[in-house]
Design brief:
Structural class: mainly alpha
Number of strands: 12
CATH topology of the largest domain: Peroxidase, domain 1
Bound molecules: protoporphyrin IX containing FE
CATH class of the largest domain: Mainly Alpha
Largest sheet: 3 strands, antiparallel
CATH architecture of the largest domain: Orthogonal Bundle
Strand order of the largest sheet: 5-7-6
Shape: elongated
């Protein structure tokens, strides 16, 4: 425990002594506006951070809430609170910190609290949020390391809503602060972003990029490409919110042309946000005067949405419905909208606000919520919770005394079976079906027998490799690979037949989940083929359907295999050397053909040998590209994928290929470590506090 405390202290000392955080806390923060170079920032290793924080503990959030509540109404001289309440500013902080989450690769979100650092802090949209963070500094100091910035910022959003009259449903605590801002490089303007998610027209950026405009959290408030036409904003709003993962299942329905429940979700979020606060653009040439209070400049727009900006009401959309708006240039020089005519209240709308009455589905909801605040309130608090917790992964990762019951967006899994089978016995049954003289659906070997082992490894790998350390989505727990949409992903075509071959074993053992069986079958095949023994931990459980897997569609947007592999390594969180080793796993000729490749790297069909042949062959052969995705050894019936070939195109990857080709033992042990990390990745992050229960539930098997 004391060792852990020491590590935590070291980490927080690093954070506090980081020059970026120093300047963040200084009064004249130089980082909130303007362009800067970010490439020198050291890349943070998320898994190291996880390790340092393995025994995460959290404070009593009820007490923290009381302290935050006090801070909200104590206006500070360095940045006086509008209307005497920091609530609206804090909602914007919590929303911007969390709204960077994108479902394409699970990056972003407030877990890590990178909004404190460059580059995120100086994104155009985050202007003045450094001041919001500064207001919270005394609360952070009071609790110290036990309260992460990510939890504090997010919880402050909840307290602000409650302070202004809206009760939240609870709080998922346990965010872990990153030591620097590098985790956000690909989410905003940077060379990394350009490499991975190049945006051709800024303002019309597409997935995997989250927002439509680089440097914003969502869409341009001034309209599509700054054109003040609310109609043109509609699509931008839909696009950017769906990429944020708002209601993934509904997004699928949307793409499939089904009914658009997605808009319902985002509209609830949107309305709630602009029930509060105001925009800031006091003059057209900032800094304006002393730069604070009435002289604040953040977005450049100026004015409030309702007459009661610190009170929860549905006036925002009553105003949308009942007034005619005219375009004008605000004091900040930007296009905005005000009610036309005399005796109208002094309120303002953004072009993107008016988009909400330009779409028939949006408009219906505007009407519903204008008529019934209760309905808005009930729906909204759930959406807010989702927005705040999307990047936290399964509900089992939520810590603290305010955690609500698991919500649908967390795709909760049933509890693991009470009684687990003896996995050593199950493993023996798997061995029995590996070979057959009859066609069992497996690969045919030189000696004429049919072999299922390589297919078992493919199945387990496909199931496990979906894990993302960025938002803890994916992994084999739940065995969602049995259902659509995961079953239908191109690389999984044909694996349903492999599942069939395992069915008799599944049915034989009470308490054996598909998820455990899939991993165990892959592992058993590896060991039987000559790989090192790997400790198996069971206790996975099966989902009732495939929901949740739509979060982890294949990431096929990369334009270069090396970049793809490097990015995959970061998203999975596995070390590079071990990831390269996993390329040397058993491969099935049948499965390669199912995937539309011409075959595998093995000349003969001795697919049942676990060896370092893959690396030897990779180095020895003269490769010729035969399609976008495949290479062939010149004059031979040997094939590898472009992904395999990328191991030769990067110096670091290649150095491991050379090492493994020369040293079988080094390969075997790196493979074992890689498989071990991958197969236990999702289990490692189950709440550590429950460790004793966890120990009791999970069966161990050597
Ligand atoms: C403020 C745009 C969604 C909550 C603002 C400001 C802009 C803006 C331009 C003014 C910032 C300033 O100058 O101080 C947008 C757009 C959105 C969006 C274009 C989506 C299409 C949301 C959401 C929430 C939210 C989803 C919360 C759930 C707020 C709040 C403020 C604000 C509370 C007031 C901050 C203050 O009073 O200091 N928004 N927003 N917004 N936004 Fe949004």
């Amino acid at each position: 425990k004391s060792k852990n405390l020491l590590l935590l202290t070291t980490l927080s000392t690093f954070v506090l002594s980081n020059p970026l955080s120093d300047s963040l806390l200084s009064k004249d923060c130089p980082l909130s506006h303007g362009k800067r170079e970010f490439e020198s920032i050291k890349l943070s290793d998320r898994r190291t951070v996880e390790k340092l924080n393995e025994k995460r503990s959290v404070p009593d959030f009820v007490k923290v809430k009381a302290d935050i509540n006090l801070a909200l109404t104590q206006s500070q001289e360095f940045f006086p609170a509008d209307f005497g309440n920091y609530g609206p500013l804090m909602i914007r902080l919590a929303w911007h910190c969390n709204g960077s989450y994108r479902k394409t690769d699970g990056r972003g979100g407030c877990d890590g609290a990178r909004i404190r650092f460059n580059p995120e802090m100086s994104w155009e949209d985050n202007a003045n949020l450094d001041n919001a963070i500064k207001v919270l500094e005394p609360v952070k100091e009071k609790y110290g390391d036990i309260l992460s910035w990510g939890d504090l910022i997010t919880l402050t959003g909840d307290v602000s809503l409650e302070n202004m009259g809206l009760q939240t449903i609870g709080f998922c605590g346990g965010r872990i602060d990153d030591p620097d801002g590098s985790g956000s490089l690909v989410l905003g303007p940077s060379a990394d972003q350009e490499r991975i998610s190049h945006c051709v027209v800024n303002g019309d950026c597409h997935a995997p990029f989250g927002p439509t405009t680089i440097g914003l959290i969502y869409v341009n408030p001034g309209g599509h490409l700054d054109i003040p036409d609310p109609k043109l904003s509609v699509k931008d709003i839909r696009d950017s919110f769906s990429r944020m993962g708002m209601n993934d299942r509904e997004t699928v329905a949307l793409i499939g042309g089904g009914n658009n429940i997605l808009s319902e979700v985002l509209i609830q979020t949107y309305f709630l946000g602009h029930a509060f606060g105001k925009t800031h653009g006091a003059c057209s040439n900032p800094p304006c005067g002393d730069g604070v209070g009435n002289n604040t400049f953040s977005s450049g727009f100026e004015g409030q949405w309702t007459e009661t900006p610190t009170k929860w009401t549905n006036d925002f959309f009553k105003h949308l419905l009942t007034k005619k708006y005219e375009l004008f240039k605000g004091p900040g020089g930007k296009n905005q909208w005000r009610p036309a005519g005399k005796d109208e209240p002094n309120i303002r709308m953004l072009t993107s606000d008016l988009a909400l009455i330009e779409d028939p589905i949006f408009l219906d909801l505007v009407k519903e919520y204008a008529a019934d605040i209760g309905s808005l309130q009930r729906d909204f608090v759930k959406t807010w919770y989702k927005l705040m917790s999307n990047d936290m992964g399964p509900a089992t990762r939520c810590l603290g005394n305010l955690v609500p019951p698991p919500q649908p967006f967390q795709n909760p899994l049933p509890s693991p079976p009470k009684q687990l089978p003896k996995f050593s016995v199950v493993s023996k049954d798997i061995v029995k079906i590996l070979y057959s003289s009859e066609d069992n659906g497996g690969d045919q070997l030189n000696d004429g027998r049919y072999y299922l082992g390589a297919l078992f490894v493919e199945l387990a790998s496909q199931c496990l490799f979906t894990f993302r350390i960025t938002d803890y989505a994916g992994g084999c727990n739940g065995a969602r690979i049995r259902f659509s949409p995961e079953r239908d992903y191109p690389d999984n075509v044909g694996l349903d037949k492999v599942l069939e071959t395992l069915k008799p074993i599944k049915e034989k053992y009470v308490g054996l989940s598909w998820a455990d069986l899939i991993v165990l079958a892959g592992q058993t095949a590896i060991e039987e083929a000559g790989g090192e023994k790997i400790k198996f931990i069971g206790g996975r459980t099966d989902a009732a359907d495939g929901n949740g897997a739509e979060k982890i569609p294949p990431r096929d947007y990369y334009y270069n295999s090396v970049i793809k592999l490097k990015d995959q390594i970061k998203v999975t969180g596995l070390p590079t050397r071990e990831t390269v080793a996993l390329f040397g796993r058993l491969r099935s000729d049948i499965q390669q053909r199912n995937r539309n490749f011409s075959g595998t790297y093995r000349k003969s069909k001795d697919l049942n040998k676990f060896s370092n042949d893959f690396f030897k062959i990779l180095l020895k052969e003269d490769w010729k590209k035969i399609s976008e995705d495949e290479f062939q050894a010149k004059g031979k019936d040997i094939f590898i994928t472009s992904f395999d070939f990328s191991l030769l195109e990067d110096l670091e990857f290649k150095s491991y290929v050379e090492e493994f080709a020369e040293d079988l033992d080094a390969f075997k042990s790196a493979f074992k470590k890689g498989w071990d990390l991958l197969s236990k990745a999702e289990l490692n992050f189950i709440e550590k506090k429950k460790k004793t229960v966890f120990d009791r539930i999970f069966g161990f098997f050597d």
